[in-house]
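Predict the structure of Hydroxylysine kinase.
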Amino acid sequence: MSSGNDCRPQTLTKPALGEKEAAELVDRVFGLKVAWIRSLPSYDDQNFHVRASAEGAAEYVLKITNSEDSQEPDLIEAQTQAMMFLSAEGFPSATPYRTKDGNIMSLESGDHRPGSKKYMVRLLTYLPGTPVAKIATNAQILYEIGRLAASVDKVLSEKFRHPSVKSLHRGQFIWNLANVPLLDQYIYALGQNKYRAVVEEVIEQFKVKVIPKLSSFRACINHGDLNDHNILVDSSAGSLENPQYRVSGILDFSDMSYGYYVFEVAIAIMYMMIESSDPLSVGGHVLAGFESVVPLSTEERGALFLLVSGRFAQSLVIAAHTALLYPENKEYLTITAKTGWKHLMTMFEMGQEAVEKTWFETAQAYTQHSPAP
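Done. Here is the predicted structure for Hydroxylysine kinase.
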């Protein structure tokens, strides 16, 4: 869910290729004949599921990046190199199929008319699995997701070395959790929505209680968007009543940026709450998994409630703003809003102390006994 380094999501142009044009693109740029192709839902890029005609019938995702992000090749290179690095480290991350020229990406015109916009194109290996959004999550997979979030950030921060990594210092990037105060300029998109007051309260509390503490948090590289549609799982064992899941895919690195470890766990908690039948219980399981790899400091734990609330605010406000610009994509853009408002209101009605007590007591229980492997 990205829109460049800048804090103006409205300047991007989402690609709009048809399936025939996309298939021709795969042939022209990557030298692969397409057996079948279908469009996939996306936020501000365009994605296609592709099966090649070649022997083995390999499957890929054709990713066509929006016009604004396409102007930042170093950033896309950093994201793609990070995916390749994580795959080499044993994480279930996609890797690029190289172009006919041997490159990992190619800048291509949307059509053949003079002055048409250019889009960065990549062909990534297709990862099998079911999005977390489509399963009934249990404590075991929530713990695994927390552990994954910490492990990804830790290995990227400690071992990922590539010249393009400097492009991950993204300053005013609207989806970086440090930039919750920038939501002020988009809050108009909520209209006189009855929930607007709680978003305004989140932003004000964030400015006062989180921003001054940032320097005490431990810095790292964040994936930045481990949401319930960007984590794929498959059922590895267990019973129908209590399935055991493993993560089979990590998708969408377009929100990568330098941030803080505590940002990643807050983002994961928020998105795992979305489809949960018991959303307030989710945080403790995710936190326990995260802290099994990267234990949080007292300052980081103390900011967790407002960081989770801040991510709800980002998601709800930016989606409302983007849906005004692209009403034809409103259903996909507002997936989070369907339950997000309710969860944010519940958190504020219960209050920080009660919510933290629930999270921290659940996480504490894991230190007495480890979860099933």
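The chain has ten helices and eleven strands.
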